[in-house]
Amino acid sequence: MEFVSPEGLRLDGRRPMEMRQIRAEIGAVSKADGSAVFEMGNTKVIAAVYGPRELQNRSQQISSQALVRCEYSMANFSTGDRMRKSKGDRRSTEISLVIRQTMEACILTHLMPRSQIDIYVQVLQADGGTRSACINAATLALADAGIPMCDLVTSCSAGYLNTTPLLDLNYVEDSAGGPDVTLGILPKLDKVTLLQMDSKLPIDILENVMQLAIEGCKAIAKYIREVLLENTKQLEYRRGV
Amino acid sequence: MRGIQLPLSQTQKVRLQKALEKLESLSSKVNSNASVTISDSISVNHEDSVLKGHGTADLNGEVVATVCGIVERVNKLVYVRALRSRYKPEVGDIVIGLVVEVAQKRWRLEINYSQNAVLMLSSMNMPDGVQRRRTSVDELNMRSIFEEQDVVCAEVRGFQHDGLHLQARSQKYGKLHRGQLLSVPPYLVKRQKQHFHHLEEYGTDLILGCNGLIWVGEHIEGKDDMVDDQVNESAPEAVLPSKNYVSLDQEKNYTTLETRKYICRAANAVRVLSTLGFNITLEIIKGVVDLSLSMNLDIHDMLGSEFCVLVAEKEAERRSSNKKR
Questions:
Q1: I need a labelling partner for A136 at 20 to 30 A (CA). Which of A21, A53, A196, B265 fits?
Q2: Shared domain check, B298 and B205
């Protein structure tokens, strides 16, 4: 199948290096300590953060740092064919683990000993790149909850189809079975916190694809910063003196 | 951006936008570029030594923020004041909490902090007002003082090895009843000299807990009503018919309709202010209640979008007039 036309356009009309439109909104769940909605094209994810709060299970207590928990789920209506999925299936447990590890790396857990932070992410619309969208939404929600972090984590995916590196794959490109690299970075520290790849890539091409994904992550980071700064300013001026 | 979720008509939207813009213009002159987000570097003068406070971290010799908030500087100290976050206790704060557990010699209270707070039996006044060593009998009778799900007002005593401790060594602290508990983001409540307020004209009490829990209830006289109980008990029971007791009891548990209405009005005022994200102080709450009274508004209409827009406009007016003075 042809994923990049001779004119250099992808199936949804983007250029290979182009990202889908992103949109973020803070404060979607009123009862949560922090919450956000993140959209990348047709992919839409909602995240809610509760905590730091008292541990539900005392035996899990860590006296020097906070416990981070994460639950990923996919709404039944999020995909094309409506499917009833069991809660603890393999895919969602794996993604929960990935998100938890990525977020734990940037949260300064030692500042909140003997407490727990719960992150709940749910996919409302799935169109490829849900993993990245979930991580971005979780970052925003954590920042909204006022949880100290050493840096924002942003994530973006990239692939390699028809001998062209492609940024931010959608569902059709994702299911083509080609290499799919999901990358999470700390933009300020310039460090990689997450790197996942399906199928294989030659090492020299991997570097190109990774570079592309890094550029994508940085663009997302820039946007997320703007959203957070605007939100902070709003809260401050509304509050007044 | 955190939007205000209210069904607004087109004109209301425009009016609210206008009021918020006015508020923005009023505040932006004070500190326009003090807002930071996570991992923004904070400019400091490196010649002087810098003390890094809360919400900051060191990154390759640079001071960076670890939370979203406002940069504050006090002499050498640089810190970031986070806006939306859980409550951060300070010694001497007045907080309102919910009892979640009655444990050995202590109650555990949920106070919107990262851990539950501890209120020791020994750090509160006994209901009989006598100072003495707490016996095992007192310990067994702890549920007669506070039970699970009770709303309690106390003061932050400090950190001990096993967590945050509270104390309630005065008549003004203790169990709260006959009123409403409201929860707002803690950054909206500013620490002040006075957190207990008596709204005389409405006959209500208002307690602004530093942890974002706010109590609006019927006014309770400062006198020690437990002493009254003792007097009653010492009086020979045969003299007082038991019916009389019931009526006395009822009177104690009865709040007049008028007062209840005022409690609801004040509570709704707090709700409106919290949805708009405005600072919550006694004067502002009073202003909103008076506004609703002067408009002859029903209590439930106070949560409608029209009143919300009106409050925003009034607040903009108030702040600008404060500025001129």
A1: A53
A2: yes
Shortest CB distance from A232 goes to which of B3, B35, B86?
A: B35
The fold for domain A22-239 equals Ribosomal Protein S5; domain 2 (3.30.230)
Domain range for B195 is 178-325
- Cα separation, B272 vs B315, whole angstroms: 12
The CA distance from B131 to the nearest CA of chain A, in Å, is 33
DSSP per-residue string spanning A163-223: TEEEES--HHHHTT-S-EEEEEEETTTTEEEEEEEES---HHHHHHHHHHHHHHHHHHHHH
* Tokens describing residue B145: 């003082």
Closest CA to B56 of A125, A111, A204: A111
Q: Which residues of B touch A234 (CB under 8 A)?
A: 1-2, 277
Q: Assess whether B108 and B167 both reside in one domain.
A: yes
Q: Please list the residues that pair with B165 across neighbouring strands.
A: B118, B158
Q: What are phi and psi of B218, to 5 degrees?
A: -65, 145
Measuring CA to CA, how many Å separate B171 from each of A153, B219, B316? Answer: 50, 14, 39
B289 and B217 in one domain? Answer: yes
Out of B1, B27, B319, the one facing A26 most closely (by C-beta) is B1
Please state the ipTM of this predicted complex. 0.89
Q: Which of A167, A125, A179, A119 is nearest to A147 (CA)?
A: A119
